[in-house]
Hints:
Helices cover 24% and strands 27% of the residues. The chain is of the alpha/beta class.
Amino acid sequence: MRIVAGKHRGRSIDAPPGTAVRPTSARAREALFDLLAHGRFAEQDCCRDAIVLDAFAGTGAFGLEALSRGARYVTFLEKDRAARNILEQNVTKFGETKACTILSGDATRPPRAASPADLAFLDPPYREELAAPALKGLAQSGWFAPGALVVAELAALDKLDLPDGFTFLEDRTYGAAKFVFLRYAT
């Protein structure tokens, strides 16, 4: 698995062995970030100078891709110790330790945010219905700035019941993954 574009383009992202972490394919990540940079949501490049949250961070692929493309700062939130250890190694390998924070925690019951995110990625385990509780918990803990763009990755056939404060914008399916684009309004 590699970074698709930006200053870290082509650099490999390490992943823990086993099935505890399900990294998003490079093809799906490339399509997502192209849409963020040049598509419907790109009044400006959504990554450029953004404060980013990567919840259910796993390897950190979303946050590292955002940093590679010009994000100012990323907070990674991951509760699995093995995934967090690999994430820390990836951040160090990319020389991005000053541009991010790695928090240990459950995205459905997160710690209070130090700074709200302009752009957020949620990549919960498929078919566990964690996206809606995570959106609610993260919103209540101050993780989303007003007007923040939130991208949740779900299994292609999964549905998402939105908590209050979120507006559905669209969804896009890439193989087994579906990206659901939301706007946080409160």
